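Please check our next protein.
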Amino acid sequence: MAFFPANSTYPGMLAELYSAAFTAPAFNWICSPAVTELETIVLDWMASLLHLPACYLSSSEGGGVIQGSASEAIVTTMVAARDRYLTQTTQHLNAADRERAIAEKRSKIVVLGSSMSHSSTLKAALIVGARYKSVNVSIENDFSMKGADLQRAINECLEEGLEPFYLTATLGTTGTCAVDRFDEIATVLKNQPFIWTHVDAAYAGAALVCDEYHYLTEHFESFDSFDMNMHKWLLTNFDASCLYVKQRKHLTNALSVTPSYLRNGYSESGLVTDYRDWQIPLGRRFRALKIWFVVRTYGAEGFKSYIREHIRLGEKFAAWIAARPDLFRILSKPAFALTVFSITPQPVSRGSVGVKGSGDSIVGNGVSQGDTLQGLDETNELTKDVYETINSRGKIYLTSTVLDDIYAIRVVSANTKTEEIYLQRAFDILVSMTEEILGKKRSIAEAILEQISDIKTS
């Protein structure tokens, strides 16, 4: 319940055993045609299951490749994006001027991502030697990146003489599983043809196998790459990250290095795929085998029922949290089996002491006219106290995040062994722990007030 899942299933483990026995380096087609061809086939299968546009299929100018992780996929596509940007924006120059212009542009290129984007985008920017600019998102928009905010960030870069070349848009952010406004982003990028847009759907992308989420891919044809991790939520052992690109030539142009010992007639014919040119490393494992085993075992309907059950459980847990507004407040719309919440700001009598922040007067929910709500600092401290006490006692383990300066608790219901009774147990622990800590704090406050009253009357 703490982290996004890392699945392990019998079909996946069996395939890993076979893969270990084959131990093919698979850096190019001639090493093992079957390894390469099966990867192409299963990634086309997955593209269809995920309802991706046809431009991401191997039969088009694009295609898929298995990476080790979503972070690796971001680095790989960012290298390709940098190469494409520097080439396309200097192609009108002669050789000498082009070299000088590229050297100058390297100091100005900027990577964009929302303030909720995974840290892997920032890390990739460090690796490729680019600057990073964050696009602010807010709780009012459920922490989704909007087109207007993206346009503002682009304008700020241009005003400073900087050159945006890469954007990470997210389907299911780590903090809240927010989905960026793909339609608005696509509209903005019509006027920015040199910006490579990558969709990071590492965890929540698995839900695209369900028909009810197919609408999310409507604008993906406007983007350059997409990645999701089967090893997170689709019953496949780590590592199996499915990266798709709209034009594979940008990957191969940026990453192809062919020394004499790798030359062969098949590769030079252009009729086969050498996946070494689609990734950072040279060698690679036979990871397609476990995807094949898992897809053939569970099938499309098995995937759909698996995802839908976890989402049902997540919605049930969120309903329990929402039913106790005296204790909890949900900070963003529950999504993809993730619920994010904090402790509800508690009423504080105007006569109490030790309360920082002004608070807001409210009436209702048992709060008197003369009361105020706790300030942000006190509410954060209370939420953190509940979170850390639960983890220290070891009955369940949770994770936290910070959203718009609000300290929050995360609960994920997407693990293979998740059942309703376990979520109910987690909810009961949250309730009892919150009530216990609130009771202690009230007792302390009452004792202090009583001492103050005694001093005044003496």
